[in-house]
Amino acid sequence: MRRTVQFQAPQGEPEGRESAGRPEPLRTEFAFDLPRGYVDESGTVHRSGVMRLATARDELVPLRDDRVRENSAYLSVVLISRVVTRIGTVEDIHPGIIEDLFASDLAFLQDFYRRINAEGHTRAAVSCPSCKEEFAVDLAGGRLGES
Question: Does the global pTM surpass 0.85?
């Protein structure tokens, strides 16, 4: 059973801000764009997706998985497959889908998981390699060059 709460900022207010003392509703789903993308059997590349917050069950159930017991590195594959609800038009996300991702996409999803579940946000501090200016980027944002 999956429970989701959709977050929608009230009109006229920027997302992620508290307004006039009202607490922000709980956000349980986060959109993302994979750096490379999942390539399905027909050759279609799927880049955008959705990850939901993990539950305690999501973190406990993979520990009983025989593949995880044999190889602890497989834990992240099973865990990510439980919390990613969609990649492109693919909605049946299972460990086989996650196994077929490029390594850079799996690393991205692992970091994204950590950010939304441990830190509660999708922002990352970065600095420009040329001018060294520091700024924040939203990992759940659009592709490079989009605002």
Answer: no
Give 74-85 pLDDT, tens digit per residue: 999 999 999 999
Can you read off the two tokens belonging to residue 115?
Answer: 């950010």
DSSP state of 44: -
CA gap 34, 53 in Å, rounded: 18
Nearest to 75 by CA among 63, 92, 85: 63
Q: What pLDDT is recorded for position 146?
A: 42
Higher-pLDDT residue of 147, 99: 99
Give residues with Cβ within 8 angstroms of 2, minimum separation 6: 52, 85
Cα-trace Rg, the chain: 17
Cα–Cα distance, 91 to 82 (Å, whole number): 12
Query: Contact 47/88 with Cβ under 8 angstroms?
Result: yes
Portion of the chain with pLDDT greater than 90, in percent = 61
Give CA 49 to chain center in angstroms: 8
H-helix segments, 1-147:
56-60, 66-70, 75-83, 95-99, 103-114
